[in-house]
């Protein structure tokens, strides 16, 4: 009687094993990939959208400076207001920019808080004078140290009440005292009649350097 027996070729068996393993690994890989993709897709749904309303837009060329606080809040600041402020304490005005196209005061963005002051034109450094108008200078009021509002005038310079940071408005807000890492940015301005108008955004990024 003839005895038939299926002989198993070891090389062929090993190749088939490798093929099965490759297919299995590919399937697992696709599964993992899809899983990661679906996780990312779900995650994207939870990222909050940043909505920039007109009140939160950063100051830009054409904006008019208005009173930020007090009885005149929202009204346009005039050179006469700045002259009058020199007799008060502090001798400068805190302002916000107003968009003349929609009349929206951009008061919902902290870094739009601006100090405006009338100084003697001849006291300004050439670089500072380039962005001033008849001695009127405007700078970010947000301290570069930890972000307090610079609201005082001491030693003939701007003074931050939080830790005593001081800036000289005649020299590009050069730091003259305190733990401040650098100057606050100047806002280039011009006079249009009685209006103080920004001719660009801040010269560099406003806000605390933290
Ligand atoms: S936050 Fe102004 S000196 Fe510290």
TrEMBL record:
The lineage of its organism: Bacteria, Thermotogati, Deinococcota, Deinococci, Thermales. It comes from Allomeiothermus silvanus (strain ATCC 700542 / DSM 9946 / NBRC 106475 / NCIMB 13440 / VI-R2). PROSITE patterns: RIESKE. The keyword Metal-binding applies. It comes from the Bacteria. Residues 136-198 form the Rieske domain. The chain crosses the membrane at residues 23-47. GO terms for molecular function: 2 iron, 2 sulfur cluster binding; metal ion binding. This is Rieske (2Fe-2S) iron-sulfur domain protein. Keywords: 2Fe-2S, Disulfide bond, Iron, Iron-sulfur, Membrane, Metal-binding, Transmembrane, Transmembrane helix. Its cofactor is [2Fe-2S] cluster. GO terms for cellular component: membrane. The keyword Coiled coil does not apply.
């Amino acid at each position: 009687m003839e005895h038939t027996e299926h002989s198993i070729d070891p090389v062929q068996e090993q190749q088939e094993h490798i093929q099965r393993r490759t297919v299995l690994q590919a399937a697992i890989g696709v599964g993992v990939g899809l899983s990661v993709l679906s996780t990312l897709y779900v995650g994207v749904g939870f990222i909050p959208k940043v909505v920039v309303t007109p009140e939160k837009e950063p100051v830009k060329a054409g904006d008019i400076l208005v009173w930020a606080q007090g009885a005149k809040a929202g009204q346009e600041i005039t050179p006469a207001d700045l002259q009058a402020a020199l007799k008060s304490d502090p001798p400068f005005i805190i302002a916000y920019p107003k968009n003349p196209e929609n009349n929206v005061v951009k008061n919902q963005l902290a870094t739009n808080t601006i100090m405006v002051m009338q100084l003697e034109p001849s006291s300004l450094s050439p670089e500072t004078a380039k962005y001033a108008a008849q001695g009127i200078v405007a700078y970010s009021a947000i301290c570069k140290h930890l972000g307090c509002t610079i609201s005082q005038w001491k030693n003939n310079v701007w003074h931050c009440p939080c830790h005593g940071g001081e800036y000289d408005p005649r020299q590009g807000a050069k730091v003259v005292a305190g733990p401040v890492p650098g100057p606050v940015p100047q806002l280039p301005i011009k006079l249009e009649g009685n209006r103080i108008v920004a001719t660009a955004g801040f010269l560099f990024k406003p806000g605390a350097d933290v």
